[in-house]
Amino acid sequence: MTAAPPPSRNDMRMERPRLRMASLFWKVFGLNAAVFIVAGLLLALSPLTVSSPVTLGQATTLVAGIALMLLIDLALLRRSMAPLGELASMMRRVDPLRPGQRVRLAVRDRELCELVGSFNEMLDRLEAERRISALREAQATDAEQRRIAAELHDEIGQRLTVLLLMLANVETDADPEIARRLREARVLTREIVEDLRDVVVRLRPAVLDELGLANALIALTRTIGHQAGAPVETRIAELPREPPPVLSLVIYRIAQEALTNAVRHADGSVIRLVLSQDDNFIRLQVADEGPGLGDGDPQKRGSGLRSMAERALLVGAALRVDSSPTGTVVCLDAPAASS
């Protein structure tokens, strides 16, 4: 999946209609008029005459002439209308998850050129509005998840911890049977605390706020590698400055999804995560040497890739996923100034 940069305003003006272009209406009318004029001249200059009643030979000649005229008209109109079919086909191929796609069609009709330019301008507006609304929604969701995660950690988590201490204190003074039951309750409570911590991390990885993106990715690769028993190599360059919160969260979530997919499909091969940054872009790359995504569950694979593509759209990033029997590479190029 790649996202090409949107066309500039100069490009858009180039696609707008020029006054010298012929109108499609007059072009079609001219073609039909030319066919009728040529047919009329041929009838006028030919020795053909029509009597009443019409003879068989005259009727045959008239039918052949009309058929020939219709075939010529059909061929000319088909050629004239071909750009409309091509335009419709290109419109159907535009993918909302691949921003920057624009209709490029060499047309000489004023109406068609106007239609192409208007469609491209509509895509510009839709992509801009979608990105702004999606970014606002992501920021609001992130703020709400922070609040919920903090409440779960500070309120529920602390109360469960106090409950563990109370159970431990009561267990020391209880008889053996009750102590055994209290011990089982304490184990169950501890499992609930661990599950709660997992929920808090899924809502908002606190490691992003505490350690920054680079260290959060290092911790993520270690955790996933340890849990899956798969070797994960990391190469993370020092970032000149910490990315904005939404951008950091998008990169982290895409890395998390890509690593999870790699563990699922890599068959124990080495997984590599690389994070780098230049003056304009932050690049994340997750690669493995497995058999590719073709052996996985298409439904899960499709939802995972779609989720990554939707997250990339939030920050105007370009996402590319290349999969082959020799491995899979997920590459994200995000503008460093995304906010």
List the helices and strands and how they pair.
Layout (H helix, E strand, L loop, with lengths): L8 H7 L8 H22 L10 H38 L16 H64 L2 H28 L2 H6 L1 H16 L3 E5 L8 H21 L5 E7 L3 E8 L9 H17 L3 E7 L2 E9 L4
Parallel strand pairs: 1-2
Antiparallel strand pairs: 2-3, 3-5, 4-5
Helix pairs in contact: 2-3, 4-5, 7-8, 8-9
Number of helical segments with 4 or more residues = 9
Give the rounded overall mean pLDDT. 77
CATH class of the largest domain: Alpha Beta
Order of helices and strands: HHHHHHHEHEEHEE
By CATH's scheme, which homologous superfamily of the largest domain applies? Histidine kinase-like ATPase, C-terminal domain
Regions with pLDDT < 50 over 5+ consecutive residues? Answer: 1-19, 295-300
Termini separation comes to: 22 Å
Strand order of the largest sheet: 1-2-3-5-4
What integer value in Å does the Rg equal? 34 Å
Shape: elongated
Helicity range of the residues? 55-70%
Would you kindly provide a brief summary of this structure?
This protein has helices at residues 9-15, 24-45, 56-93, 110-173, 176-203, 206-211, 213-228, 245-265, 298-314, and strands at 232-236, 271-277, 281-288, 318-324, 327-335.
